[in-house]
Specification:
95 residues, mainly alpha, two-stranded antiparallel ribbon
């Protein structure tokens, strides 16, 4: 097990180039999701971090990866969507 170099996201058995791709895609998604009304509305409706990650964020990560021409397997999309969901739910609990 290791972590990505810039964001410290936990990953298992990935090549360094894929870890860089995860960091890059995470940073793009994180910035974009913070400014998108549909993401905020979706978050307000969902009570489960896992469910929001699986049913909404996963697909949005895949769309952004395709748009940005970043290789993104289902495994990578899951890592990123889970990480973002955990962050959002963690911040919401602190407020």
């Amino acid at each position: 097990m290791g972590t990505t170099p810039r964001n410290g996201i936990e990953v298992h058995h990935l090549m360094p180039s894929m870890m860089e791709a995860i960091d890059t895609l995470f940073e793009i998604c994180d910035a974009e999701f913070n400014s998108r009304k549909d993401v905020h509305e979706s978050f307000k409706k969902e009570t489960s971090s896992k469910k929001w990650s699986t049913q909404f964020l996963f697909w949005e990560v895949r769309k952004i990866a395709a748009r940005e021409d970043i290789i993104c397997s289902a495994h990578i999309a899951r890592i990123i969507s889970d990480e973002i969901s955990c962050i959002w739910h963690g911040q919401h609990e602190l407020q």
